[in-house]
Design a protein that fits this description.
Layout: H1 3-11, H2 18-22, H3 28-33, H4 35-44, H5 50-85, H6 94-165, H7 180-245, H8 250-271
Length: 273
């Protein structure tokens, strides 16, 4: 079953009313007599709101209270007139009044109990009615949303087709053609690598002042060696010049120069410069 068929089936469901739900509980005689009047009343009240129904209920309660008072008054007058006009007149003694009062007390207690039960039942029915009304409104809203879904799906499909037609040529880089989840995984991996690099850079930046101090110390230690090197080079040059001049002390100076060069190489290896 497609979406359109499902929506059409939901729309063709019978419209239920309170009278339709309550009709099996009514006796057949009263139902047959009031069928047409109930149907017309249901059609007239189909569009009533809960506020209007509550106002009608309060009106009818007030009306029935007045009618009950009028009925009791009329029945009392009728009985009183019948008692004084009958032949012989009806006389009631105190015991009969006491028995009647006791019966009335019992009847009132039973009536009060029935009223309490009816009040609880009405409260449960009202709560269930509110729940059903909320569910009905939800179903109506969902039905409206379902009716709008096919048009939205068609519009989205047209948008997808348009975007695919306007899409640039695919890249030769396989990383740019990954699905969503592998792309997210690759992004998380690259972000983790960037975080590691940032930590390494921060650690190196934190150690730079100490390295600079070490370099300054090595430069301070290297300065005397440079001076000695320059002096040794100068002496070697002087010795070469004297040896060329034939003074006879060139071998000693050459040996001293080799010793100084060895010392210099050893110091450079120790200082890593």
């Amino acid at each position: 079953m497609d979406t359109s068929s499902a929506i059409a089936e939901l729309q063709n469901l019978p419209h239920l009313t309170i009278l339709d739900l309550a009709s099996p509980l009514l006796n057949r005689a009263s139902a047959s007599k009031t069928r047409h009047s109930d149907a017309s009343d249901a059609s007239n009240r189909a569009n009533l709101t809960p506020a209007l129904l509550a106002a009608d209920l309060a009106h009818y309660r007030d009306l029935f209270s007045k009618l009950r008072f009028s009925y009791v008054e009329q029945v009392t007058k009728e009985r009183f007139l019948r008692a004084i006009t009958s032949d012989p007149p009806e006389f009631v003694d105190g015991s009969a009044n006491a028995a009647l009062e006791q019966k009335l007390r019992v009847d009132k207690a039973g009536l009060k109990e029935k009223k309490d039960e009816l009040k609880v039942l009405i409260g449960e029915l009202e709560e269930q009615g509110r729940s059903l009304a909320a569910r009905y409104e939800t179903i109506q809203l969902q039905t409206a949303q379902l009716e709008a879904l096919p048009a939205e799906i068609e519009h989205l499909q047209e948008t997808i087709d348009t975007l695919q037609s306007q899409q640039e040529p695919t890249s030769t880089n396989p990383s740019l053609a990954l699905p969503l989840q592998p792309t997210l995984d690759l992004l998380a991996e690259r972000e983790q690598q960037l975080s590691d690099l940032d930590r390494q850079i921060a650690a190196l930046q934190a150690s730079m002042p100490g390295k600079k101090r070490d370099v300054e110390d090595l430069r301070d230690e290297l300065a005397p060696l440079q001076m000695r090197k320059m002096k040794a080079v100068q002496e070697a040059q002087d010795a070469r010049r004297r040896r060329q001049d034939g003074n006879g002390i060139g071998d000693e100076l050459e040996e001293r120069g080799r010793w100084l060069r060895g010392v210099e190489a050893g110091l450079r290896g120790m200082l890593e410069v």
